[in-house]
Amino acid sequence: MPGLLSLVGALSFALIDCFDIGISTKCVNVPKEMRLCQDVGYSEMRLPNLMGHTTLREVIPKSIEWETLLRTGCHSQSATFLCSLFAPVCLDTFLQPCRSLCVAVRDSCSQVLTCHGQSWPDAFDCDRFPAEEDTCLTSVGTESSTYRKLFPKPTCQGCPTTEEPGAHKRVLQAFCQNNFAVKVTLTKRKRASGDSEYEVEGWVEMISPGSLFPFGSRAIIQQWLLINTNCAHKLTPSSNRAVQYVLIGNVQDTNVIVNKIYLWHRKDIPLTLAARKWKQHRC
Q1: Cα atoms in the 13 Å half-sphere on the side-chain side of 134
Q2: What is the pLDDT of residues 224-238, one digit of tens each?
Q3: φ/ψ (deg, to 5) at 114
């Protein structure tokens, strides 16, 4: 996540608490290039914003750098928090994020930054935001345990090695020792910033779904790639050629952990046999 990490350092000079929210501002349409803030419930924003950006030419590239963090799904209200700073809603006065909202997003999303050796930016210091929840944007509760069970989240982890399958019985044993097994197609593409991003191409084939549901598995695997960028880099080749893998893992305390990875070849007999026999196999 090079673009995101470079921005973390660049934000160190943006002191939100030094910005005068009483200065004269203007309302402008939220540009379509600010994909970060297209689904937050309003279409006009204030400039200068709470980050001190005075023009759209300045704010658009800064907001784009945070799209990757948003796509990791680190917190359900991360877009609300980020857009309140980069694209504050056009009202009679600035509506800042409450301290509680900042803390909720920080506690979840800082784990993604930590995964890449970075810390929560000083510019997002939660102590700078108001504590009174009737004059600012507050956090809307917490995700229920039922929601977390239905939509478990990937976490930062060490990279499992890509293994040779060996005999199909060994693969079946790996299925038995874990909670899910899925076949995915991974590819690499260049972002507008020039950074590489790794994506799940097409559908995810559920060999052994376990606690993963078909309608949410693609998003979960995509988030795992975005959080564990170093792992994704090892899995995808230097070219843009798509590669297929079988990912095997567990859902532990509603966190998705990938434990084994097999490179999938059409002529790979052990993997093919294991996938076919799994439904009738008894552990």
Answers
A1: 0
A2: 999 998 888 888 766
A3: -60, -35
Rounded alpha-carbon distances, angstroms, from residue 231 to 42, 71, 207, 211, 235? 37, 17, 22, 22, 6
Q: What is the pTM of this model?
A: 0.82
User: Helix, strand, or coil here: 238?
Assistant: coil
Rounded-to-integer distance, Cα 242 and Cα 201, Å: 8
Instruction: Kindly give the parts of the chain with pLDDT less than 70.
Output: 1-23, 141-150, 191-195, 214, 237-239
Q: How far is CA 282 from the centre of its chain?
A: 36
Contacts of 99 (CB under 8 A, 6+ apart): 126, 127, 129, 130, 131, 136
User: Which three-class secondary structure state does DSSP give residue 80?
Assistant: helix
Element (H, E) at 186: strand 180-190
pLDDT tens digits, residue range 237-278?
A: 666 788 999 999 999 888 999 999 999 887 788 888 898 888
Preceding amide of 160 cis, omega within 30: no
CA neighbor of 136 nearest in space, from 105, 94, 104:
94
How far does Cα 132 stand from its chain's mean position? 29
Cα–Cα distance for residue pair 128/123, rounded to 1 Å: 9
Which CA distances in Å does 134 have to 49, 95, 97, 99, 234? 21, 10, 11, 12, 48
* Distance, CA of 30 to CA of 15 (rounded, Å): 23
What phi and psi, each to the nearest 5 degrees, are found at residue 24? -70, 135
